[in-house]
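Margin note: ligand = iron/sulfur cluster.
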Amino acid sequence: MKIDNIDVSEYPNSEKIYVKGNLPGVNVAMRKIRQYPTVKIENGKRVEYPNEDVVVYDTSGPYTDRNVEIDINRGLPRDRMQWVLDREDTEELPDITSDYGRMRRDCRELDAIRFPVAHRPRRAKEGHRVTQMYYARKGIVTPEMEYVAIRENAECAAKGIKSHITPEFVREEVAAGRAIIASNINHPEAEPMVIGSRFRCKLNTNIGNSALSSGIEEEVAKAVWSCYWGGDTLMDLSTGDNIHETREWIIRNCPVPMGTVPIYQALEKVNGRVQDLTWEIYRDTLIEQCEQGVDYFTIHAGVLREHAQLVEQRLTGCVSRGGSIMTQWCVLHNEESFLYTHFDEICEILNKFDVAVSLGDGMRPGSGHDANDRAQFLELEVLGELTRKAWEHDVQVIVEGPGHVPMHKIRENMEKQIKECDSAPFYTLGPITTDIAPGYDHITSAIGAAIISWLGTAMICYVTPKEHLALPTLSDVREGVIAYKIAAHAADLAKQFPGAEIRDNALSKARYEFRWKDQFNLSLDPERAKKYYLDARREAQDADDKFCTMCGPNFCAMRISQNIAEDCKSSAINSDND
Ligand code: SF4
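Resulting structure:
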């Protein structure tokens, strides 16, 4: 298999750098953007003043490292495996232990689409827990913790900027449940990253096939593509054919933590008949995915039987797929949700692999009209209870949030989540702030995402322009990721995250000095910025580049400002000479 419809091999005028830590094997990947010098004419001579390189957080993995040979048929290097082995608390299993996983493996018809390399899964030794939260609570600073501390700081100390983020700080945050490092021991291809309100705001992208469109090749391409543009985690929400095989291809080639919603696959296993779902099928699905290397599961365990009647009072009912499935299951069986009643067992599975739980908001509002209603907040209270239960098992937790929320109702969401869930990281879908713009919901939701992440949300889940309309394409993924990079970075600036402003200041300086190439290269989407500039400039006949076509040469305020500065300088010199 090849992914030849996208180029993710490099960023313009950039190089991959690695910053070494103190613990063995800690080598943190970052991207260094080189800048051109500032050129001035002084006393009739051309003088160059160098501009410093800018180091930025990099989610692209080995794809942008020229020294790593990429072969998606073999998967990415499994660098983190040595740390797992060094801890000596896991064992390689002689075989896959999920029934479904074995069945897929033994089906010869699937050979044509199967990932070519089989890795035996690992699991905690009997009586052990292997989560980052477990180690953190024992006072152990793991290589993963040191890795994320270095990664978050992006070399800001070199610019004289102090940061509160140290490996010990990461450990404290993970131990307290305020941050997670999602890192399944069976996904050693992933580079560690941290999700917590005291760290950089992260963004998740969703990919996945459906019964109607998209195949394995396209989903792998979308996964790699979203990492290239800045996605920090990736959720595979596949509901179509060959979910197991699609997931294996994605995980083996994915440099960021990957999440799923296991109830989707469990439902596929019973041919979409909600009434046929059982705890046993769900349990086997969890184990199947733990052994493949999924880093976090969305589990809608907070949707209870008593919530079903509240759905009728809404304008848009229950819009979460997982929430609606479990609500229907409770009604059909007139029983409490098996996700809720078996939550302890779920946690005991997850802590054997270090899979984090993302507590799904099955009752999230599907319209501004339903925002902050009783169903939503009742569920949030249950999510608080489940958060504490997961922590008893040393399982790392994030809590999912809305949805569709007008701006004036956003703050209440954040404050209630912090109170009910004891500051476990909040992970919100947008929220979408108005419902009148189908086709532009990456914008309606990025507005809400920026506000809520400023207020403390740790990770925002992207929305593409196709939201509510169709499965996103590659270009939609790019649009969605960039919109959410803007929201996340705007929040980092507002929270005064150490060094967040370095890139902004460098770009602003380049803009003011008409260093167009640096302006493009420092931007989130260099290709688009360059194209827009050049398309317009092609019309211009002269070589003067000290303006753009927005205002033109005579009205370019930056150009006029520079002329004022020059004029002031010469009049100062003249008055000195008087
Ligand atoms: S022409 Fe206007 S928009 Fe363009 S660089 Fe000058 S001030 Fe900025």
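Residues 547-548, 550-551, 556-559 surround iron/sulfur cluster (CB under 6 Å).
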